From TrEMBL:
Gene3D superfamilies, A to Z: 3.30.70.100
Record SUPFAM superfamilies: HMA, heavy metal-associated domain
CDD domains attached to this UniProt entry: HMA
A GO term, aspect molecular function: metal ion binding
HMA domain location: 3-68
Protein's organism: Streptomyces zinciresistens K42
Name used for this protein in its record: HMA domain-containing protein
Length: 81
């Protein structure tokens, strides 16, 4: 069973951003899909293990993007401070 994370990433603004994030998160072991919505400035990823969550967050931040908050399975996990 997969978990789904939806990250609010305000800095997403172009096709290059989309490709960078999809590549960074989609390459992680256990991630089955990574989608970026430019209009909504969000990224959604389906992943296999809850232990993957810190890796997904780290990959987005390592790609140079700030995360304003995220939800896992429809439950808010983190919001901007």
């Amino acid at each position: 069973m997969s978990d789904v994370i939806t990250l609010s990433v305000p800095g997403i603004s172009c096709g290059d951003c989309r490709q960078t994030l999809k590549g960074a998160v989609g390459a992680l072991p256990g991630v089955s899909t990574a989608r970026v919505d430019l209009e909504g400035r969000t990224m959604t990823a389906a992943f296999e293990r809850a232990a993957m969550l810190p890796g997904i967050v780290a990959a987005v931040e390592a790609a140079g993007y700030e995360i304003a908050g995220y939800e896992v399975g429809g439950h808010m996990e983190r919001t901007a401070s």
